[in-house]
Specification:
Length: about 120
């Protein structure tokens, strides 16, 4: 299935030691799949967050990134306190769009990132 892979890639690419609230909204799409998520920075250094975590490279996908102070309302699910594998960094990841995608995202949140899933 292509959607879980795309969501995993976006999630893996996502992940402020600075006290400023910071988040990025990532919208990605190709001919068949459209994904929108927002990464809210918890303790990732600001420059690393902006230059790496919020810049996914997805082959054959158009990706738009917008930096905001906080993630917008309307997420169908949030992975709270998601840990980035092999790194000390954490973030909250907000998912928008098709609520049934939670069946893929919740296990990934809880098992892969040791996060806490909050559904709508």
């Amino acid at each position: 299935m292509r959607l879980p892979f795309l969501l995993s890639v976006l999630w893996g690419a996502s992940v402020a030691n600075d006290a400023l609230a910071e988040a990025c909204v990532i919208h990605s799409h190709d001919d068949r799949v459209e994904v929108t998520l927002c990464q809210a920075n918890i303790n990732i250094p600001a420059e690393l967050f902006r230059s790496g975590f919020c810049k996914p490279q997805l082959k054959d996908h158009e990706v738009e990134v917008k930096f905001v102070e906080q993630c917008p309302d309307g997420a169908f699910g949030i992975c709270r306190n998601a840990h980035v594998s092999n790194m000390p960094y954490r973030q909250d990841i907000h998912y928008y769009g098709i609520a049934s995608d939670a069946r893929f995202l919740q296990p990934a949140c809880e098992q892969n990132s040791q996060g806490v899933w909050e559904g709508e």
